[in-house]
Each structure stands twice: as structure tokens, then as C-alpha cells.
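Is this the right way to post C-alpha cells for a design question? Let me know if I should format differently. Anyway, here goes:
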């Protein structure tokens, strides 16, 4: 899932003479997603939904900032859906049900 998200971000800039963002920003997005998933899945705090919610908020805010740096072009509809799906999967794997979009309160992409 993460690879697909990043692949299409990188593919978008591959043949562009003046891309709105750089490969380093795609890689940073990948680091943010990896760190989120690892932190939640490996933490002894993952049973605490408030803690998990704070991790989701921190990720979404970091992605908001990154996307702004990229002229609002890094996270398009397909990437947004993939990122949200990844977040919901991690939250569910941490033992919490996801019945609504838990990113919506902070998400600008």
C-alpha cells in the first residue's frame, strides 16, 4: 500500500521538466508513513485510543506541512485515499475500530 502511494508520487514528477516537488519530498513522505506505522504498532500505548489519535493527528499535520511545501501537489485524490486507508489499517491493527474518517479534523489534503 505505502509503496503504491509513493510510486505514483514519484511517477508524477519523473517526466516533468519543472516538477512541483522533488524525490526527496516523496521519500520524506514515506518516512512519515513508516514512522507512524512503526510507532503505533510497536508501542505499548497502542491500546490507548487517545494516544493513537494523537499519533494520527501528528502524522496528518506533518503531511499537511509537507504538502504545502510541495505546492499542494504531492497528495492528490488517489494518494489521499491510499494514505487514509493506511492510517485506518494501522489503527485497526492496534485494536481500534475505524468507523469514520479520523483524519478529517486535521487533514488539508
Amino acid at each position: 500500500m505505502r509503496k503504491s502511494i509513493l510510486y505514483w508520487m514519484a511517477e508524477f514528477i519523473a517526466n516533468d521538466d519543472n516538477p512541483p516537488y522533488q524525490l526527496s519530498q516523496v521519500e520524506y513522505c514515506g518516512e512519515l508513513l513508516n514512522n507512524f506505522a512503526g510507532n503505533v504498532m510497536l508501542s505499548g500505548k497502542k491500546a490507548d485510543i487517545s494516544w493513537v489519535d494523537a499519533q494520527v493527528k501528528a502524522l496528518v499535520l506533518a503531511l499537511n506541512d509537507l504538502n504545502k511545501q510541495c505546492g499542494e501537489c504531492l497528495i492528490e485524490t488517489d494518494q489521499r485515499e491510499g494514505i487514509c486507508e493506511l492510517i485506518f489499517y494501522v489503527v485497526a491493527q492496534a485494536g481500534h475500530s475505524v468507523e469514520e474518517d479520523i483524519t478529517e479534523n486535521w487533514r488539508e489534503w
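Format looks fine. Someone answered above. Worth noting: Residues 49-69 form the longest helix (21 residues). Residues 5 and 71 are 18 Å apart (CA to CA).
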